[in-house]
Amino acid sequence: MSRLDQIEHPKDLNKVPKEELPQLAEEIRAVILKTVSTLGGHLGASLGAVELAIALHRCFDTPHDRLVWDTGHQAYPHKLLTGRQKIFSTLRQYGGMSGFLSRAESEFDTFGAGHAGTSISAALGMVEAREQKGEKHHVVAVIGDGSMTAGMAYEALNHAGALKRNLIVVLNDNEMSISKNVGAFSSYLNRILTGKLYTRVKSETATLLKTIPKIGHPMLKAARRAEESVKGLIVPGLFFEELGFRYFGPFDGHEIDHLLTIFENVKELKGPILVHVVTKKGKGYPLAEANPAGFHGKPSFHLETGHAKKKSSAPSYTGSFAKSLIQLATDDPRIVAITAAMPDGTGLNQFANTFPNRFYDVGISEQHAVTMAAGMAADGLRPFVAIYSTFLQRGFDQIVHDVAIQNLPVVFCLDRAGLVGEDGPTHNGTFDIAYLKGIPNLILMAPKDENELQHMLATALHLDQPVAIRYPRGSAIGVPMDDRPKALSIGKGEILLGESDKTWDVAILALGSMVYPALEAAAQLKKNGITAGVANARFAKPIDRDLLVALGKRCEKIVTVEEHALNGGFGESVLAILEEEKQAGTRPAFSLRRMGIPDHFIEHGPQNLLREKLGLDPEGIVRFVSQFVENQNDKTHYAPEDKVTSSRRVKVGR
Ligand SMILES: Cc1ncc(C[n+]2csc(CCOP(=O)(O)OP(=O)(O)O)c2C)c(N)n1
Question: Does the predicted model carry a pTM greater than 0.90?
Answer without folding.
Answer: yes
